[in-house]
Design a protein that fits this description.
The protein is about 45% helix and about 10% strand. It is α+β, with helices and mostly antiparallel strands and about 400 residues long.
């Protein structure tokens, strides 16, 4: 492996944010044009995702001195919303890669940081999950890791391996014989690693979020990156992961707005008792489109504001990092509530723009609500609201489970 120089010059840095966005634009246009048809027949966007990876899209938000594209966390959030506006399935499938990139951008002490950065610069995609369906409480790790000299042999199954069919690398956890939980990253083509396309939710059907099975998988000692005892000053490291979900919801709301406008302009007809000659002149169609626009704007606004707050945490260390991290986690949770509710409302209001024909299956407009609903169920918004209320009323810190 060639080490990444910590002070890379602009001449050898990666592509800029502007260059990445320009290269991604035609790919995202294709994704948007084909999203409904692909979801109807379970057709994964392998070519388009490979093309997005080739733009090195996940370098967005990583400093130029590190060979990244530059840009703030707000820039990253804007990009996620744009991807989700084209196809929320693809945005969700890229989540693992952007989570890895965010850790590189925000943690100079990240284990194997140079190696991970090199993989991102190569355009590699990542997936990862600790989730299991093997019994026990949510979050319980039942996958096992037993010693083999300096290495480990891992057995177990992980579910919600979002983006797994697209990715080159998989990060997860296993419990050792003495009960310690280790975290590691292995290539998907490692012997004994099996990807199953068995995700069967009502929405987000093409996120490749099924099972990853480990059968006698050899994990080398240097591939173990962290243990459960590694606790940073800001323990709310999951805040970006939650911001990402909120950004996906904002993208769904934006796409519902796009489809409402296009349908009203090009396909809708005024109902018999309307005073308008065209649907775009009908006052209730106008009101509905205005409502959808407001919902989409609200979702986008809270996500971008939370992104700015979350980035401000990075300058702090010690107790200040903990205090700022808790406040940012609450703001991200609040943004998630608004983004979820805005996306669900926008997706439902879309159907008020037209008559019976707007429900035709070939349009696939029902996918917006199904996708928003599925993303919302990752982390119940009732908990987010209750945690935010407790913080404001009593100063209680949010849980450090990664869900806030």
């Amino acid at each position: 492996m060639t080490a990444i120089h910590p002070h890379r010059t602009p001449e050898t840095a990666g592509p800029t944010v502007t260059e990445i966005r320009a290269a991604a634009e035609p790919i995202l246009r294709r994704l948007g044009e084909t999203a409904a048809a692909r979801e109807a027949v379970r057709d994964y966007a392998f070519a388009e995702v490979r093309a997005l990876a080739a733009t090195r899209i996940a370098l967005t938000g990583i400093a130029r001195d590190d060979g990244g594209a530059g840009g703030s966390l707000r820039t990253v959030a804007e990009l996620i919303i744009t991807i989700a506006r084209a196809d929320s399935n693809v945005a969700q499938a890229l989540r693992g890669t952007f989570l890895v990139a965010n850790r590189v951008a925000s943690r100079p002490d990240l284990p194997q940081r140079d190696l991970t950065l090199q993989r991102l610069r190569n355009g590699d995609l990542f997936a990862g999950t600790a989730n299991e369906r093997t019994g026990g409480a949510s979050g319980q790790v039942n996958a096992t890791a037993r010693r083999a000299g300096a290495d480990w042999i891992v057995d177990g199954e992980k579910y919600y391996s979002t983006g797994g069919l697209y990715a080159a690398w998989f990060s997860t956890q296993a419990r050792t014989e003495d009960g310690t939980v280790i975290r590691f990253t292995v290539p998907f083509d490692r012997a004994g690693v099996e990807r199953l396309d068995d995700f069967d939710a009502v929405g987000q059907r093409l996120t490749a979020s099924g099972t990853t099975r480990f059968t006698e998988v050899w994990v080398y000692g240097h591939e173990v990156t962290e243990t459960e005892d590694d606790v940073p000053d800001n323990p709310w490291q999951g805040s970006f992961a939650q911001l990402y979900l909120a950004a996906v919801e904002a993208g769904v709301a934006a796409r519902a707005f796009d489809d409402a406008v296009a349908f009203a302009r090009d396909k809708a007809r005024p109902i018999k008792h309307s005073s308008a000659a065209a649907s775009v002149e009908d006052p209730y169609v106008r009101q509905t489109v205005g409502q959808i626009a407001a919902r989409a704007q609200a979702a986008r606004a809270v996500v971008l504001l939370a992104a700015e707050t979350l980035e401000s945490v990075r300058v702090h260390t010690g107790p200040q990092a903990r205090s700022a991290g808790a406040a940012a986690a609450v703001e991200v949770a609040q943004a998630g509530v608004i983004a979820i509710e805005s996306a669900l409302a926008a997706a439902e209001l879309l159907f008020d723009v037209g008559g019976g024909s707007i429900t035709n299956r070939d349009l696939g407009f029902d996918r917006h609500w199904r996708n928003a609903r599925t993303v919302a169920n990752h982390n119940p918004r009732q908990w987010k609201q209750a945690v935010a209320g407790a913080y404001h009323l009593t100063g209680a810190e949010p849980p450090t489970t990664g869900l806030f």
